[in-house]
Structure formats: structure tokens, C-alpha cells
Task: inverse folding
């Protein structure tokens, strides 16, 4: 029988309104197995450092990725996705030389500017998974292996080394509509059904060249 106690209370937003969902670590870590395979497509050297940039309210979305960092034999570190923690992002990049920075937001970029840090000096030579609001700004910065990460309500999708935007499709189903609607496929203490992700896109069932079996999304294309 499933123990209904929650380990964390996750949060996601639908049309700007916060929704909370109690979750268990094993539910979050279950997604990490597929994410690890997506992460391995980058062939980072064993023992590399990966910096995750997220907010406290996003623990349920990012815990699985942080577990995937451990599974693949890398070291994770993190910073807050805010202007005021951008100095920490710069400091970690300078001191720990992460191969990847995951989840950079526009607020991070504004914070770097505020503190007088050049994004090229901070991020050059690294793989950077940018949120949609930071993607354009980072596309103008030289020397970055620029990738995407998209929050899908209580889940995330992120690019593999072959450019496929994967989500944990063993755990989640995405249904087409004006925007993608997300439902849980596996047992959870908070079953979710038809959560509006606010993201326009289409799910592809074509296999990705990276070898991951997690499905991919094509953004901006309706089904
Ligand atoms: Zn892939």
C-alpha cells in the first residue's frame, strides 16, 4: 500500500495562479532515471559539476534533475533563480567550473548585469539550458552551448545533446489543445489530470537520435 505521507509540497502555476501538490521523493526520483539518460547524451566527463538554477517553489520539478546529476556520476550545486542570487551563479561558475548550468532565467541575466558581470565570461565554454525568457538574450552570447529547459506545470522538459526537448513521458502524459495539458500516468499521492501547462507545442513519438525513450516536444506547433 502506498504511504500517503508527502515528503515535499510542490507548486506549479496555471495562468499565474499557484497550485500546490504534495509529492513523495520516490515519485520525483522515478523521473530521474529517464532524465539521467538524456543528461548522458552530453558525454560530460565523470565527476563534472552541474549548476541548477531554480526557485524554492520549484523543488518538485527540479529534484528529479538533481537526482539525475547524481546518478550520472556528476556533482550538483545550485543557486536561486533570482536577480539577487546572480552573484552566486557567477561565483560558482568561477570557482567550480561547471560543465553545465541548468535553468537560467531572465532574472539571472538581469542580476548579472546589475552586479557588473559579463554573461560571456560567466557562461562561455559551458552548456547552458535557458528558460524561454532567457533564451533570446543568451543566444547573443558567444561561446555557449545553448539548450532549452521548459517548465510544464509540475514537470520539466529539457534538451538532450541531439536537440530533442524531452519530458519524463513514463510519468507524464501530454494532451494536445491550445496549450499542452499534463496528466500523471503513474501512481502519485496527488494524481494530476489535465493541468494546463500554458505551453504551445506538440508531442512527437519519433525516436530521438540520443537514444532516450522519453518523448520529445516540438514547441510552438499545435497538434
Ligand atoms: Zn534526445
Result:
Amino acid at each position: 500500500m502506498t504511504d500517503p505521507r508527502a515528503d515535499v509540497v510542490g507548486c506549479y502555476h496555471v495562468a499565474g495562479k499557484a497550485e500546490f501538490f504534495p509529492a513523495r521523493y520516490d515519485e520525483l526520483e522515478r523521473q530521474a532515471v529517464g532524465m539521467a539518460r538524456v543528461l548522458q547524451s552530453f558525454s560530460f566527463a565523470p565527476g563534472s559539476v552541474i549548476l541548477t538554477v531554480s526557485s524554492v517553489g520549484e523543488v518538485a520539478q527540479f529534484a528529479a534533475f538533481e537526482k539525475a546529476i547524481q546518478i550520472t556520476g556528476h556533482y550538483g550545486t545550485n543557486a536561486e533563480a533570482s536577480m539577487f542570487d546572480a552573484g552566486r551563479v557567477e561565483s560558482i561558475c568561477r570557482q567550480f567550473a561547471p560543465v553545465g548550468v541548468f535553468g537560467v532565467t531572465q532574472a539571472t541575466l538581469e542580476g548579472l548585469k546589475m552586479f557588473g558581470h559579463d554573461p560571456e565570461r560567466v557562461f562561455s565554454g559551458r552548456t547552458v539550458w535557458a528558460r524561454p525568457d532567457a533564451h533570446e538574450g543568451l543566444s547573443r552570447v558567444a561561446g555557449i552551448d545553448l539548450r532549452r529547459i521548459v517548465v510544464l506545470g509540475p514537470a520539466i522538459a529539457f534538451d538532450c545533446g541531439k536537440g530533442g526537448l524531452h519530458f519524463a513521458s513514463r510519468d507524464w502524459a501530454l494532451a494536445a489543445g491550445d496549450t499542452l495539458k499534463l496528466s500523471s500516468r503513474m501512481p502519485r499521492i496527488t494524481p494530476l489530470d489535465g493541468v494546463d501547462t500554458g505551453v504551445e507545442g506538440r508531442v512527437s513519438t519519433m525516436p530521438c537520435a540520443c537514444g532516450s525513450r522519453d518523448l520529445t516536444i516540438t514547441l510552438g506547433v499545435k497538434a
Notes: The longest strand covers residues 145-152. The two ends are 38 Å apart (CA to CA).
